[in-house]
Amino acid sequence: MAATHRRTVRPLDIVFFGYLAAAGTTVALCHQRVPHWWAYLAAYAATAVAAAALIAAHVRRPRSRPLTALRLTYPVIAAPVCYTMVGGTALAVHGRFLDDEMNRAEVGLFGGHPALWLGAAASRPLTELVYACYMSYYLYIVVPPLLLLARRRHADLERLVTTVGLAAYLCYLGFLAVPVRGPAYSLADQLEPATLPGYVLAPAQQHLMALADPVGTCFPSAHVAVAWAVSFTAARIWGRRVLYPLLPLTIGLTVATVYTRYHYVADVLAGLLVALAAYALVAYVWRRRGPGPDVYGPSRADGS
User: Fold this and answer.
1) Is the backbone peptide bond immediately before 193 cis, with ω within 30 degrees of 0?
2) What is the dihedral of CA 123, 129, 131, 133, to 10 degrees?
3) What's phi and psi for 272, nearest 5 deg?
4) 187 phi and psi, to 5 degrees?
5) Please, is 96 exposed, middle or buried when counting C-beta atoms within 10 Å of its C-beta (0-12, 13-18, 19+)?
6) Using CA atoms, how far apart are residues 72 and 66, in angstroms rounded to an integer?
């Protein structure tokens, strides 16, 4: 029974359930600052039950390809739901946003605000290019897992999802620890131009952010953390040759987070540190107890 348990609980499960436990504990302890706090606890519990049911179903049918796909990727699939829930709990710890402190730190360190400096160079073609880099984030979380899943490289896919999941969920906890709204909010009266000009991608992303992005979810930058976590892990899985196309895009995405006024430079630096920490920790775990591909049924040789 003990051996079965060790094979059932994977590193990606520890990351996912660990986040739910940490977020739920924070909300419970600071519930005075969270409207409808009980609803968030219920949502965390329901999410945990759904994940546990998926794991149990896969234990019963380990050779089911749909269940295997879900078993390997559910922390990434659930990430947008968890991200949305952060918006209502962002002020649980401090009760206020910390943008004033962040702006003072930027002025002290740089003598001004990098987001304002970049705005002075804004043009329609440049903005459209920058937003293309910013929106490439969605490709980072979709394309590599699909490629590995299609080739049934289960161990590599688990490594990728564990690293990306750890980076993302550490950022979500960071939002609770350091809630900031970003330059687009805190420097709104100083922005010139008030709205960055673009053609198609820029207004589309701006509309999406206004419609669906939770306020206070800036530090660390999840865009930066996830993009670099994917880049590091992709280089480990496929070899350093993948960095040639990935590196310029990842650097462009990193710069875009400040150009678009969504993030402070501190958010970017913290996101990069989160990516490095997630990659290093997962690499250490894999050296100590690498995942057995047999847990997921038949798989092709993993290129690790």
Assistant:
1) yes
2) -150
3) -65, -40
4) -115, 25
5) exposed
6) 10
Identify whether the C-beta of residue 303 lies closer than 8 Å to the C-beta of residue 153: yes
Task: Match 């289960």 to its residue by tokens.
Answer: 154
Model confidence pLDDT, tens digit, residues 138-193: 999 999 999 999 999 999 999 999 999 999 999 999 999 999 999 999 999 999 99
Question: Cα–chain-centroid distance for residue 117?
Answer: 27
CB atoms within 10 A of CB 256: 26
What long-range pairs does 137-146 form, CB within 8 A, spacing at least 24?
Answer: 137/223, 137/226, 137/227, 137/253, 140/226, 140/227, 140/230, 141/76, 141/79, 141/226, 141/230, 144/230, 144/233, 144/234, 145/72, 145/73, 145/76
Rounded CA gap, 133 and 127, in Å? 10
Structure tokens at 23: 């977020």
pLDDT value at position 8? Answer: 81
8 Å CB contact between 161 and 73: yes
Claim: this prediction has a pTM higher than 0.85: yes
List the beta bridge partners of residue 217: 180
Measured between alpha carbons, how far is 25 from 194 in angstroms, rounded to an integer? 39
Contact residues for 71 (Cβ-Cβ < 8 A; gap 6+) = 54, 55, 58, 296
Q: What is the per-residue pLDDT for 300?
A: 61
CA distance 135 to 153: 27
All residue ranges of the chain with pLDDT < 70 are 1-7, 290-304
Q: At what angle do helices 11-29 and 154-177 cross, to 10 degrees?
A: 20
What is the rounded radius of gyration, in angstroms, for the C-alpha atoms of the chain? 20
